[in-house]
Amino acid sequence: MRRGPRYVAALRYLATLLVVAVLTSASSRRVGGQEAKPVELDSATAAAIAPIVQQARAANLPIELLYAKAREGQVQRAPVARIEAAVRALAARVQAANDALAPNATAQELGAAADALKAGVPRETLREMRRAGRDGSLAVPIGVLTQLVLRGVPVEKASVQVVDLLQRGAVANHFIALDERVRADVLAGKRPDESLDLRLKGIIPNLPQQATADGAAIQATTPKRPR
Amino acid sequence: MLALVTPARTANAQWARQTTFDVGGIRLTRDDFADTDGVNVAGLWGRWNERVSLIASGAITHISDGRSTGLALASASYTVPVHRVRLEAGSTATILGTSDQRASSSWLGFGRAHVLGQGRGVWLGVGGGTVHLETENVGASTGEVGGWLRRGEQRLTLSAATVRTSTVSTVIFSDETVLRVRDPVGYTDVSLAGHGVWRQLEVDAVAISRHAWKGNLASMPTAMLSGAWWFTPYVGVAGAIGRQLSDPLRGTARARYATVALRLSAERHGPVRARTTPPRVAVGDASIVAASADGGAAMIRVHAAGARTVEIMGDLTAWTPVALARRGDRWEVRLTTTPGAHHVVVRINGGPWAPPANLPRVDDELGGTVGLLVVP
User: Is B191 helix (H, G, I), strand (E, B) or coil?
Assistant: First the structure.
């Protein structure tokens, strides 16, 4: 029997809703060893972001980032149009981050990089971080770079120093400690860029590698990205 | 209806309950006899949770001409949740007796499908049963559809209920022959009901438009207003005024009424006053840190001096509020999450959600700001 275009459109719509429901259910997180109850997307929000999700999936981007943003908007009772705009803007940043961190960026790296780009970090910095970090996960270093920029450290200075730390073999806890010390200094009234210079002097001597360290040593001290 | 089964008031972890007892006066005006005054005693007993609902109520009125009327109602239902749908089945029984007439009674079974949203819901239901009037048993069937909205303690319900049954009238001939005449009736009541609670004041208002499409019942609108003022958490003054429509299912007649009563409650009502003034703690005073834990988890710790409750919400909780547990002078929760940057907000003592003071703030592009937390 010949099916009309409205029948096909209805089938596509139902298929989209089914995919959205399955993905929303699958993206639940665990709290205290138990499944946290996921916040479901209402039908209007799900339908509004469905085309964006389809594009992201076609581009092999992690769509859970987009659903998380939609859920955030829904929880905050933002209008659907605003949620759609926020998800679309995030998808564009994730795409840009994916290009910069190619070829095998993780969802965590792309989420952090999307924030970094929004804070003004250049794409070139992300590429340099990928080269400097080699196979190590960049989720934490990129996150701390974003924090430093948001705390007032000039983006060029923060970018150079974070890339340098990666080349020297800094690991996640080094970056976390750096941000915490800069935060305390800024709270005490010190200029953010001066604080960064000061705190780097305390961290660099304790790093396991210098810039000339071989790749094997770097791989042994940095977390591996999941394959 | 499920809209009324709101786990507010005295809800504990399992059961919500409501138990009240009224003693007061009533002024009643029926179409078939003059105004009468009387004494009214009424009680309500309700227990419900997500699946079971048990409600019983009764009232006895003794009016000035010496006659008395008693009405009792009992309802029980069981609800099965299926995702966002609640399938409810139950039954309702009533009995009405007066000192100079035969008692009438009814039994109705019902089934309803509720679809619940966040602060709103709709339902569709059908029912059927038997009504015993005079010495006759007549069948009854019902259909209903409705929706409700809830914002805090305020609730609005719009519904339509269709009833098909029969009324029974008695004709006594001169030779004392008694003839019971059944008159089939059908009508639809469209009602808009509002319920609100403002501190010690509770108000219920109902407007009904009846459309009778079969039989001798009149199509007409009506309205009822009732309220209670709790001058102590367990004792209040209740009043009601309005006009009730005739109810063939329960045997009650159309009448105007006004009541005032002293209401006693077994559960606490009105705002709960703290015994001591809690310390004012703003989110701006809270700081948050994340540390890696075993098993791919992160331990989230919040320092908020003087806090009574601390909650966190963000992409690492799928934007669902999660309460932190007190550990000495700090609060913590273990979350299974991934290293990297996460957006979070926290809430102290049930106040507003806001980024912790020690985190840089990020425009969320949704009209607010969130904190950027890096989990190692």
Answer: strand
Specify the residue for token string 């939609």.
A70
Contacts of B371 in chain A (CB under 8 A): none
Whether the CB-CB separation of B160 and B132 falls below 8 Å is answered with no
Q: CA of B161 to nearest chain A CA: how many angstroms apart?
A: 28
CA-nearest residue of chain B to A80?
Answer: B366
Chain A nearest CA to B120, separation (Å): 13
Tokens encoding A222: 């940095």
Domain ranges of chain A: 1-118, 122-219
Phi, psi of A198, deg, nearest 5: -65, -45
Q: CB B316 to CB A29 under 8 A? A: yes
Residue B365's closest CA among A89, A148, A19, A43? A89
CB contact under 8 A, B319 and A68: yes
Residue B213 clears pLDDT 80, i.e. is over it: yes
Structure tokens at B65: 């001409």
Q: What is the 3-state secondary structure (H, E, C) of A14-55?
A: HHHHHHHHHHHHHCCCEECCEECCCCCCCHHHHHHHHHHHHH
Instruction: Give chain A's residues under pLDDT 50.
Output: 1-8, 11, 13-38, 210-227
H or E element: which one contains B78? Answer: strand B68-82
Question: Is residue A48 a contact partner of residue B332, using CB atoms and an 8 Å limit?
Answer: no
User: Out of A31, A90, A172, whose CB is closest to B339?
Assistant: A172
Is the ipTM higher than 0.90? The answer is: no
Cβ A139–B317 below 8 Å, yes or no?
no
Strands (E), B83-200: 85-98, 101-116, 120-133, 136-151, 154-172, 178-198
Helix (H) or strand (E) holding A123: helix A123-133
pLDDT in tens, B163-189: 999 887 777 777 777 777 788 899 999
For residues B221-238, average pLDDT: 92
Cβ distance A176 to B316 less than 8 Å, yes or no, reads: no
Q: Looking at CA atoms only, how far is residue B124 from chain A in angstroms?
A: 20
**Count of CB pairs separated by less than 8 Å, A with B:** 122
The pairs formed by B71-78 with CB atoms below 8 angstroms and a separation of 24 or more are: B71/B95, B71/B96, B71/B97, B71/B250, B71/B252, B73/B250, B76/B52, B77/B52, B77/B53, B77/B110, B78/B51, B78/B52, B78/B53
What is the pTM for the complete model shown? Answer: 0.49
